[in-house]
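question for whoever is on the cluster today: can someone run the full assembly for these? two chains, 438 residues total. i dont have access anymore since they changed the login thing
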Amino acid sequence: MSEYSIEEITADHLAHITAVAQGLAGDVRALVDATVRTQVGDDDVAAAREHIAAATALLRREQLPGAFGIRFSATAGKRNWGNAMVGLRNPVAPPMHMSYDGEKITGTVDLGAAYEGPAGLVHGGILAALLDQALGSAAENAGVPGMTGTLNVRYRQATVLGPVTVSAWLDRTEGIKSFAKGTVSTADGVTVEADGVFILPRWARGQSQEDAVRTVGEG
Amino acid sequence: MSEYSIEEITADHLAHITAVAQGLAGDVRALVDATVRTQVGDDDVAAAREHIAAATALLRREQLPGAFGIRFSATAGKRNWGNAMVGLRNPVAPPMHMSYDGEKITGTVDLGAAYEGPAGLVHGGILAALLDQALGSAAENAGVPGMTGTLNVRYRQATVLGPVTVSAWLDRTEGIKSFAKGTVSTADGVTVEADGVFILPRWARGQSQEDAVRTVGEG
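^ ran it for u. tokens below:
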């Protein structure tokens, strides 16, 4: 199991590593899209694979032993850069960009060919995953973080690939349980609704709220 | 919106394009993992980015205008190669490998650093997405395909990054609704349970079952 860790980073260094990570992950996301959609012949594929192998070898010269984990610092707050939905250095993440308005969270994301389920439509599971992330972040943002206990998703209409908005908010709390709700919307209106229960794990209870946030992270 | 399409492919050509797609997507998955876990300095990152851009440019010489869609042929059956969870040419897909034993579906998948949520654990949303895929496939495999109507996921314990088994089966049908259930298991036992309702879309009703499978695809 990788780590929750605390590290100190200067603002300058943070700006630098953010730019490097975003640039690299952005390039790999473009490659992922090109891989799904390519129609080129075998020679071009073979040449592309040589470049990809060379890039991988360069990046593997020094690697983390496992996943990125979740890191905290006074400068950067929480860095969940490996997160599968929002991680800025994770090419699997679309990524969803989160903004906060009081206790409401809005996630914006442009879902391309790599997020397909039914033909031309966003995979239902990806929509569930974006909602899980947003609902968990809404609970955390409201000061009652937790791991996902249950997630219920209702698909109202098809979600066409393209720009999508995810909204989430804390509905209520009951002891160690936080109840959050949210929606996915497109130009067609609300396409998906969800509610979830987020539970502070046993091993994180009895700590200060700040420490709990540090050790729990999001869904 | 991309397409459901029917195409004819010889067995030899199918074997060839399968190998090409798997090789390319496998290489890009390795690059994704290396991107999340790299610790190298700026010079190596810059050199890697040049290779990645070169690979992308090669693959973009000829591209599909949109997503891969879902393609059918007598030789290959259904090809959902762009699917975000199981698509063999989609580097976002871990991918999950599905096998069928009567009406039970088993999906096996090894979830690395790119699928992280809480530190060292699989993202709850990725688990929901794998279940959505498996439950929808179970309904389809039982002859009652549909788009996801609702998906309810219960997280019983943490799912550590690594090998995971997804099981799914059709529970019952009611008219146009198929009810499926499933679990995620690891060496720790069952970690997640889910049930879902899959609904034959209005525009696919009144067709033969074969045509309905062709036009619906999975979750």
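summary bc i know u wont read the tokens: The radius of gyration of chain B is 19 Å. Chain B touches chain A through 91 residues (CB under 8 Å).
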